[in-house]
Amino acid sequence: MNLYSKLAARAANQNPVTVGMIGGGKFGSMFLAQARLTTGLQIAAVIDLAPERARANLAATGWAAEQYAATSISDAFKTGGTYVGDDAATMIASGGIDIVVDATGDPSAGIRHALLCCEHGKNVVMVNVEADALAGPLLARRAEEAGIIYSLAYGDQPALICEQVDWARAIGFKVVSAGKGTRYLPKFHQSTPDNVFDNYFVDAEVAKRGNMNPKMSTSFIDGTKSAIEMTAVCNATGLTPQANGLSFPPVSCYELADVLKPSSAGGSLDHAGTTEVISCLHRDGTDVEHHLQMGVYVVVEADNDYVSHCFEEYNLLHDKSAKYSAMYKPTHLIGLELGISVASIALRGEATGTPNGFRSDVVATAKRDLKLGEILDGEGGYCVWGKQMPARTSVSMGALPLGLAHDVKLKNEVKQGQQVCWTDVDIDETDMAVRFRRQMEQAFSAEDTAD
Predict the structure, then answer these.
(1) Is the pLDDT reported for residue 445 higher than 80?
(2) Predicted confidence (pLDDT) per residue in 371-403, tens digit
(3) In the prediction, which pLDDT does 214 show?
(4) Are residues 127 and 167 in the same domain?
(5) CA separation, residue 393 to residues 179, 217, 410, 434 (Å)
(6) How many structural domains are present in the chain?
(7) For position 78, what pLDDT does the model report?
(8) Would you say 341 and 151 are in contact if contact means Cβ atoms under 8 Å apart?
(9) Which range marks the domain in which residue 438 is found?
(10) Which of 76, 170, 202, 380 qualifies as a cystine partner to 70, CB 3.0-4.6 A?
(11) What is the pLDDT of residues 7-47, one digit of tens each?
């Protein structure tokens, strides 16, 4: 509980933690809004394919123009300011940067940037959970070999869930389940950028004000982002997916322990030690009372009657048997909280979650009947959504990872609800991200891909 005092000490010694950020969009802008106010932290560079957009977002988040007027990264270090540019590789290779934050959302770019960080000795915070779901286990292994830290992003739900799992295990509890809330109905799997704000938790006007990208927003409502995030959690914690992935049961925060336990104990899960995402909507579309739409949770199991009695005596959120109990966090601050990852890495040498195995995967699943010759448009598009699946199952069936289901042509028809396979698409085997993903599948043994 002393990150701030350590940051203050760095400031007093005129040795701030220095960050190079790639991606000046919504998540990055939320981080920038707080980074400007954080003692002992310097954003040395903001890199974006559209630098003018990044400058506009800096201005919108309270930065004065002179604060991001540095003409180069070296000038930023001389003046204590921030450089805005479009060359991520040069930024990563430059001296003086402690931590690189990838907030691009592009899985191929995330892999490329993480590997450059390994090459140049830069710690990396992977906000880009799409890249982590596609190849995070091998990226983390490469980072460890390079002597750097690869971390999930605090403020995003996977890192917050990892924190809850770590808390539970550190005090001796068996973790039964962990996950988050969302807005879900089965029909949402067919959401597209054209109709997403009919189903979203904000309307089109509010989304426009917040510069919310319709394609990215679609990935949140069609089930894709939930699969990506729970895959990140499984690969970082040792939890394993359910055989059929996520079922999105409607559950209130007071029912967590009753529902999110194994079916053998009267719950809805196919085994203990798994992930589940719960819906804030009943299947008829009405709201779940006391829902957890924006929050995260963990369910633990008491080892003996004494602990069960403690659950009852201290009015915890236990099930009817008092053998299972839940803790939850009602919401999350997304990019506004990202500084915790930065400070944890720089001052404690600790990641806020990192993959340690390939247990879960996200596979491209047809939103509608797909025709021969169609071009897949990836996450949040019109063609596919991402389904969580045990990694062993995904690899054995040759399922196409969602992160590679973009700008590729179908060689076969795929029916609605079916998984797209590698053999269904024309894939460029020379592509860097494709090659790296293939390497990851080969690098992890059957024990690593346990279902």
Answers:
(1) no
(2) 999 999 999 999 999 999 999 999 999 999 999
(3) 86
(4) no
(5) 21, 28, 22, 19
(6) 3
(7) 96
(8) yes
(9) 360-443
(10) 76
(11) 999 999 999 999 999 999 999 999 999 999 999 999 999 99
Which two structure tokens, joined as six digits, stand for 395? Answer: 């690899």
Q: 404 in a domain, yes or no? A: yes
CATH number of the CATH domain containing 420:
3.90.1210.10
Question: Are residue 49 and residue 141 in the same domain, yes or no?
Answer: yes
Is residue 446 predicted with pLDDT exceeding 60?
no
AA identity, residue 410: L
**pLDDT above 50 for 451:** no
Question: In one letter, which amino acid is 300?
Answer: V
41 and 92 inside one domain: yes
pLDDT at 448: 54
Residue 389 lies in a domain: yes
Residue 216 lies in a domain: no
Q: Give mean pLDDT, residues 278-302.
A: 97
Residues 288 and 168 in one domain: yes
Residue 276's closest CA among 254, 294, 256?
256
